[in-house]
Please model this.
Amino acid sequence: MPATEIDSDNARFGDYLFRAFLAYLVWIPLPMGSNRPWAWAILETGGYALAMAWLWGFYRGRLELTPVFRNARPILILLACWLIYTLFQFIPLPISLVSLLSPESAKMHALARQPGWIPLSVDPHASAVAWLKSLAYVLVFGLSLLVVTSRRRIELLAYALVLSGLLQAFYGSLMMLSGLEYGFFIKKFSYVGNATGTFVNRNHFAAYLEMCLAVGIGLMISCLGGKPAMTRRQKLRNFIKILLGKKLRLRLYLAVMVIALVLTHSRMGNTAFFSSMIAAGLIGLALSRHASRATVILLVSMVVIDIFIVGAWFGVEKVVARLENTSIARDADRVDVSENALRQWRDYFLVGSGGGSFYAVFPRYRSGDIGNFYDHAHDDYVEFASEYGLVGMLLLGGIVLSSFAAGLLAQYGRRDPLNRGMAFSSTMGIIALMIHSFVDFNLQIPANAATFMIVLSLGWIALYLDTHGA
Model:
């Protein structure tokens, strides 16, 4: 077969795999945020299948490791260490080793009179389930570095997330405003009167919108700039281009998502979005050596227009009122759960009680005034700490902070507007989720966790992807 035909076949195979990856990313939030066993099984199976397809293409010489993947070695090592560490949480180990690393786990297994070797986790089945999810998330991260190989592909990836957020926003707003109140083909039984999209929980829906909005704002920033108009004819031509071009469409998409975010009535969701946009904007302007006045205007317009115009019609004043009226007393259960979970962490300080084991361990530490059952702490930091211990928190912190640093370096060093825009998206998305995670368990929702891995990967892609002429 001629070399040109082989190259064409290889290119088609790569295109098919990339399109399948985009379809996968759009799918995962649809079935209730993939937060049901059957739904996260599809998420896992899809991730494994895409990874196997890439490996088959690599074995057959149709695909190759990308420069981005090679240069992202630090975070890939951290992710590999995370998988190895969490694997050792649920495989049997010598009792003496478990007693050394986690005396409390050894005590719990002794109460169960479990003979022979024992795992570190007090619920090894739940930890195995959590590990399979983690493997899928790591594969999503790795695949994004491997299949995003050009300027066009990074734009398509970004637009796929924006359009997914737009679909969720339109559907969630329609269900609320029409009074139909359906989720994913099921009548809503909770959070009626709030936009939830196809998610169950309004706060988790808000977190997904935060990430999609961050990507959309990054795209807007990448479209800014260009030569200033000198004559009236040029100014008129530029104005017409704006009216008919993708900038206006993208701005409308963002407005629809902001409307839906306000309609979630998620206090921390709205706070995290606007706070992260302002913080990322200030960081971006401070770091970027190529920032234009248009970037400043865009960020200011996002704050002013979305708060005072969209909010005036769709109730942001109610969200502000709820924020002002929020007190420790009103959210006593959440605060008590977090405080009690910290006592759980003290008992499992070094290596945790095991991934996914919070629901099984927490009842022992729950105070008498907490009457409800909690399968998650309403604080991702506390839950991760109690389940994975100090070692796990250091690994997770390294993963997030290294990606954040990659985004900052890209904003400082890259000249291409698309790279800078995607670096901004990564920075803003990370800040938003880190703020929101103080009061919710967004990263326990498979769709949000997988999408967050894409947000992390954008920092590395923006730093190392060669978009010149791509």
